[in-house]
Amino acid sequence: MQTITMREALNQAMAEEMARDERVFLLGEEVAEYDGAYKVSQGLLKKFGPKRIIDTPISEAGFTGLAIGAATLGLRPIVEYMTWSFSLVAYDQIVNNAGQIRYMSGGQFSVPIVFRGSSGGGLQVGATHSHTPENWYGSVPALTVITPAFPDDAKGLLKAAIRSNNPVCFIENEKLYGFKGEVPDSDTDFLVPIGKGKIRREGDAITLLGNSASTHRAMEAAETLAKEGIEAEVIDLRTIKPYDFELVAASVAKTHRLVIVEENKPFCGWGAQVAYDIQRKCFDELDAPITRITGLDVPQPYNGKLEAAVMPNEERILAAVHDVLQ
Amino acid sequence: MSAAGTKSVKMPSVAKSVLDLPPEGKRDLYRQMLLIRRFEEKAGQAFTQSKVKGFCHLYIGEEAVGVGTISVLEPRDAVITAYRDHGHAIARGMEIKPLMAELFGKATGCSRGKGGSMHFFSKEKNFYGGHGIVGGQTPLGAGIAFAQKYQGTGGVTLCYLGDGAVNQGPFHEALNLAALWKLPVIYIIENNEWSMGTSLARSSAGLPLVNRAHGYDMAGITADGMDLDDVRVKTAEAVALARSESQPTLMEIKTYRYRGHSMSDPGKYRTKEELEAHLAKDPIHLYQQKLLAAKVADQAWFDKLDEQIRAQVQEAYEYADASPEPEHHTLYEDMLTPEDQIPEIPRGNYNHF
Ligand SMILES: Cc1ncc(C[n+]2csc(CCOP(=O)(O)OP(=O)(O)O)c2C)c(N)n1
Ligand SMILES: [Mg+2]
């Protein structure tokens, strides 16, 4: 085991996969000579050279489409967005090209590609820079959406995503890049299965379901609840689409209560899908309505106090839990 | 050489050798153009019979562009275009039966009935589609060329777009990337003077369109799309530049569509005179006159060919008509590639009722 940051875990994942597969390459703004806007690609240019670690102009639609075209011919690109907020100018390429080409071609052309980068609010960078787009991409049938919360998952899931033969949106969280955790050593070729959630804390009073940074908010709330004698189970969804319904259902069968914590805005956030599925298939297990704590339905404000209110914070989670437990 | 493009890039002078085709080669180019014409007429007819649904954009009048450009390619090269894709697919050698069947939405279609008129694909022929979002295919074209270069295949990519598509941002991003990274891609603007009902003059500043090569220090050349040989010579130069020096080119080929934008467009925005002036320069007729004059073929040969092609197209129509609809279960197929390096990802079923 090694104790490393999320940033280092992601870096190792890319380096290991590039070493084992010549077809894998990384492109994006500042990924090479600058070593990455968030230093996720640090040292990779030195290791792999400019053919495979490629600085792009600020041209998301162009380099995203280019990477998709290269994938249809058989390469396996990793596209880094400085932040996922900037993927919006490439939305057409991701949705209409990566998302539809295989189907529209009757299965002839595959798109083995990973789109990755930072996301999320809470850093006072304002409304344009704080998006959590997992629900936007999750609504495209052919896209797989992954949002890791811990370094081990970040590494194992990114390696798996790079090996997938299908387009994956790998949505990291800027606040977590410096988060440290235990990760298996590099010689173990550590992979985490895509589509599987993970119980990060066991409990029987209520299920808290989170992803990415929201998992950490749920963990903090669970600690506070434990002091009140309430043992919450915390599930980290890890993969948003397709998500691990069985794991959530099994937990709900135990706790009979579900609070979903997500940074997505409330309308059609990923938690809405989970809540729908659970009420539809586990109706009799529920002792209380499913409740969602989401980013508030307003643009992200710059002011720190205001933004803190928008985020799914501990205070709001605790209020929801107490409401559901009543 | 009409290089509107750069100071730094000199077009290689490709001997007019591409024109030194044996007679059967010339006759085959004519055959391809006529096959496209007759295929499109049949497709239009099938549309009016409601056998073909949705959008159906015909290539009638533009045949010399698709046939001329693709005729100088090798099998390892790639082709990608927009939604007006029937002509390119035929010129690339795709069988017309699966093409007609695709228009009919049948299981035997080239995209298994899931693509339709705008989304023809053939991996075997390196035909990367058929793309419905105006300009959306242009970064893909750069990417295919990028992969050809990365893998050292020696192949080049032809990426087509319309005169309306030149105003899409991603096209300019693609031009910049192609020039910056020296990608073996040739962007071919099929300038048919109209983007739906908007004339070129009303859509684009800085005419002629080929001037847009300047800003990217890229070779830029024009060709007369009604003249098959001109298209062939100019494209051969661009292909040679891409293949030998890995340099992109922007081509503007002047052409004209004789039909409406799609089958649902009566084309009221243009005058009869305008249409007639272009009909007088029919690329198929002009090439026929050339071959007659050069005694490459006589009138009897042309008459017989037309008869054969009409029969071939009729056969494709009947094949498409008789082909089965896709089975319901195919609805869920082709979305995802099976995994071979990781376990299959368990896919949730979000479909109720
Ligand atoms: C992004 C986008 N906007 C609008 C359309 C609708 N549309 C389809 S074709 C077309 C005109 C394009 O003309 P041009 O690029 O000149 O190609 P042509 O049809 O003449 O071959 C329009 C507006 C579209 N398909 N995609
Ligand atoms: Mg046009």
Can I get a quick summary?
Chain A has helices at residues 6-20, 44-48, 60-73, 91-98, 101-104, 134-138, 151-163, 212-227, 245-255, 270-281, 304-310, 314-325, and strands spanning 2-5, 24-28, 53-55, 76-83, 114-118, 144-146, 168-171, 180-183, 198-201, 206-210, 232-236, 239-241, 258-261, 291-293. Chain A has 326 residues and is of the alpha/beta class.
Question: Can you walk through the features of this model?
Answer:
The complex is a heterodimer of chains A (326) and B (353). Chain A is α/β, with parallel strands linked by helices. Chain A folds into two domains: 2-183, 3-Layer(aba) Sandwich (Rossmann fold); 198-325, 3-Layer(aba) Sandwich (Rossmann fold), CATH 3.40.50. Chain A is 37% helix and 18% strand. Chain A has helices at residues 6-20, 44-48, 60-73, 91-98, 101-104, 134-138, 151-163, 212-227, 245-255, 270-281, 304-310, 314-325; strands spanning 2-5, 24-28, 53-55, 76-83, 114-118, 144-146, 168-171, 180-183, 198-201, 206-210, 232-236, 239-241, 258-261, 291-293. In chain A, the strands form three sheets. In chain A, strands 3-2-4-5-7-6-12 form a seven-stranded mixed sheet, with helices on both faces. In chain A, helix 2 links the parallel strand 2 (24-28) and strand 3. The termini of chain A are far apart. By secondary structure, chain B is an alpha/beta fold. Chain B has a domain at 25-126 and 139-205 and 245-319: Rossmann fold, CATH 3.40.50.970. Chain B has helices at residues 23-48, 63-70, 86-91, 96-103, 137-151, 169-180, 200-203, 228-245, 272-279, 283-293, 299-322, and strands spanning 78-80, 157-162, 185-191, 194-195, 198-199, 219-224, 249-254. In chain B, the strands form two sheets. In chain B, strands 1-2-3-7-6 form a five-stranded parallel sheet, sandwiched between helices. In chain B, helix 6 links the parallel strand 2 (157-162) and strand 3 (185-191). At the A-B interface, helix 3, helix 4, helix 5 and helix 10 of A face helix 5 and helix 6 of B. The complex binds thiamine diphosphate (TPP) and magnesium ion. Magnesium ion binds at residues 162-164, 192, 194-195 of chain B.
